[in-house]
Design brief:
Blueprint: H1 3-8, E1 12-16, H2 18-21, E2 27-34, E3 37-41, H3 47-50, E4 54-56, E5 62-63, H4 66-77
Antiparallel strand pairs: 1-2, 2-3, 3-4, 4-5
Length: 81
Amino acid sequence: MREQDLIDHGFERFDETMESSGALQDWYYYTLDLGGITFITNASDEWDGEGISVQIMETDILFVETEPLVDVIKLLESNIR
């Protein structure tokens, strides 16, 4: 999954500093909220080793490929009232 895929599908970037997070470097992540469901990426400082993944918060659902994620996003968007 590429960072541009997230941007293209409406994910919003949130930056964290070393000072605010206690991490060894600055990092960021992306989220998308759809009808009360929140999608969140792993931290940018993990992307080199693990790649970008997207989880539905508070679930065991994890997307590592773009196509299934986009399918779910489209399904949800078409059913939000």
